[in-house]
């Protein structure tokens, strides 16, 4: 599954669609999600929950523009897809 797909998240009472794709990297993987023009990566943590991460080439100020509640909802949605 390396093709793009639509990730729908209910946020502040409305459905929001985000373009996402699964990136396979050896024995690991990440999800790449486009949130209003900002690419955000989600990877599993030690507990198997997904968290957003900033890649070294990404500017911190762009990541700070994103609502933490939205990032948490996207993480939850990814976990539900994989359950």
Query: Please, how many helices?
Result: 2
With strands numbered from the N-terminus, the spatial order across the biggest sheet is 1-2-3-4-5
Sheet of most strands:
5 strands, antiparallel
Regions with pLDDT < 50 over 5+ consecutive residues?
none
What overall geometry do the principal axes of the alpha carbons give?
A: globular
- Helices and strands, in N-to-C order? EEEEEHH
Rg (C-alpha, Å): 12 Å
How many structural units, i.e. domains? 1
Based on secondary structure, the structural category is alpha+beta
Instruction: Give the % helix.
Output: 10-25%
The residue-averaged pLDDT reads: 89
Number-wise, the strands total: 5
Topology summary:
Elements: E1 5-11, E2 14-25, E3 28-35, E4 38-44, E5 50-53, H1 60-64, H2 68-82
Antiparallel strand pairs: 1-2, 2-3, 3-4, 4-5
Structural features, described:
The protein is α+β, with helices and mostly antiparallel strands and 83 residues long. It has one domain. The protein has two helices and five strands. A five-stranded antiparallel beta sheet has the order 1-2-3-4-5. Strand 2 and strand 3 form a beta hairpin. The longest helix is centred in the last third of the chain and has 15 residues, at 68-82. The two termini are 16 Å apart. The relative contact order is 0.19.
Short descriptors:
alpha+beta; 83 residues; 2 helices; 5 strands
């Amino acid at each position: 599954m390396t093709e793009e797909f639509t990730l729908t998240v209910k946020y502040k009472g409305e459905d929001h669609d985000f373009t996402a794709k699964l990136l396979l990297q050896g024995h690991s993987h990440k999800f790449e999600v486009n949130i209003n023009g900002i690419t955000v990566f989600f990877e599993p943590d030690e507990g198997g929950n997904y968290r957003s991460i900033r890649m070294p080439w990404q500017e911190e100020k762009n990541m700070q523009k994103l609502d933490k509640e939205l990032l948490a909802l996207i993480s939850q949605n990814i976990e539900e897809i994989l359950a």
